[in-house]
Structure formats: structure tokens, C-alpha cells
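Q: What would this chain look like folded?
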Amino acid sequence: MKASFVSSSAMQSTLRLTISQSQTKLLQASTEAATGVYSDIGVSLGSGAAKSVNLTNAISLTDALTASNSIVGLRMDASQTALSSLKDAGDTLVSNLTALQAGQDSTSVAVALQAANDTLSQLISTANTSVNGEFVFAGTNIDETPLTDQSATVTAAISSALSDYATSLGKPVNELSGDEITSFITGTIEPMFSESAWTDPANGWSSASSNSMTSRISENETISSSTSANSEGMRYLALASVVISSLFGQDLGADAKSAVASKAISYASQATSGIVTQQSQLGLSQERLEKANDALDARSTLYQGNLVDLQGVDVYEASTLVNQLQTQLETAYTLVSKLQQLSLVNYL
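A: My prediction, written as C-alpha cells:
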């Protein structure tokens, strides 16, 4: 009979290798049990890793578009709220001016003047609304304050022009007829609120761009996501307010004042109509944004499902493997400890 000998050193080396391999497998299995996906996508999927990368990139793109769309939606919501308040201000101005046409007593005149001044103040404040540091009515000039109140300068120019106009007709201002004051408003004041005068770099009211913001809401779709303070609605609301505030401070006769109120009502009505048009245009963009978001959500869900099917592991199986490897490691540690305690001294 021949005896075989195995050294304790060889046994310890084998156990150390087993422990090292088990620790590596335990780390991988623990990661997979915790995350539900392969710990090493490249090794586990092989050539399928490219598909995994493509799906991950597609998910990242949809997430980025969804986040961007959220900001776009917030900007358009703020714009709609602001436009609604301006429409209400225009309607209130029309109501007060209509009452002024019925009677030009001092109270009605005072109310109309206050309404005009309040409307202009609200226009300036609302047009300068900002969201996340961007001015929503600045067009593409999102970092520039859209409107500056130029009413004092314009009123002074109107007063001087009115005096010259009356002189050219050979009569004092208080003798101007309704038709004559209407001609003055149409020929002199209205051009002061044309888009070119409104945006004049030297003396204009607006620093906004007339070009709207364009936002990409999906891979292949863009929308106009803002509106501008240079719109006809806002310009005509300012025009209606200034016509009242500048001319009702002049020494006009009853017929001329009635004509001024009538013309201001016309401008204010054009303003509210223009503002409603702006709201409608934004509403169409909001509808397209909502549909794009629904499509992005559906696409993201599909991509996520495909990625889980590709990368996913059986969490229960991974957890079972973790327990097995932990037991195996504990056994190996125990054996190593026993081997280290072996000594010939114990047997001599």
C-alpha cells in the first residue's frame, strides 16, 4: 500500500483561489440582485451590448426632450396667463371709455384717465414677465427687458404736435372738431406706435425681437414657443392708453373728446382682438407640445421595457446565488482557519 501526501500549503493555496473567485462572483451577484441588471453588460450580452447602448442613448434623448419640454410648457403657461390679464385690462378700458362717451363729466373723465394709466402700467409690467430668468415676451432676445415706458416722451411729442396741428388749421386747440382730432390721431399718433417706431433703438418702447422662440419638442418637430411684445395687440393697447392720457389732458371741446374716446375704443378693441390671436397661436403650440409629450412618454416606456428585457436578470436567482456564495465563503474561511491551526507539535 502506498501513502499519498498533500501539503497544507497546497490546500491553503487552493482555498485562497476558491475564496478569491467566490468573492468576485459574490460582488457580481450582489450587484445584479440589487440593480436587477447584469453587472457587466459587455460580458453578459456580447454583441447585444451595442443594442443596449442604443436603447440607453434613446432613453437619455427622450428624457432630455421631456425635461426641455417642461421648461417650454412653463414659459407658454406664463405667457397665456399674462395675455389673459392684458385682455381683461383691455376689456375694462373699453368699458370705461364707453361710459365716457355717454357723458363727459369730471368723474367719468377722471375714471377714464385712471383706467388708461392703469392699463399702460399693467402692459409694461406684464410684458416684462420672466420665467427662469428669461423674458417670455422678448422674442429671441430672452435676456433683454422687453418694454420701457416712453409715455412721458410720447405725450410731450403729442402735445407739441397737436399745437402745431391746430395752428396749421388756423384755430385754437379747443375749437378742433371731432373729425379734425380723428385725423390728427390717425395721421400723427398712430404712426408713433408702428412696429418700426415701437422698436426704434433710440426712442422706441421695445427691446424685444419680433421673432418668436423656436423649440424642439421631439426628434423631428419644432414649435413656435413664445410671442413678442412687438405684437399688434400690445402696441395698440399702449396706443389706446396714450391717446386717452395725452389728449384728455388737452383743452378739447366736447365733440373732440367724444371722437378721442371713440378712437381709443377702436384701438383697445383691436388690441384685445390681437391678444386673443396671440393666445390662439400659443394654444396651438401648447396642444402640439402636449401630444409630443404623450408620444415621448410612450416611447420611453417602450424603450425601458426593451432595455429591461435585454439587460434584466432574475433577481430571485441572483439572491439565491448570493446566499450560496456566502455559505461557500464561510466554509472556505473555516477550512483555512483549521489548516492554519495544524502543527506537528500537536502530534509529538
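The longest strand covers residues 214-218.
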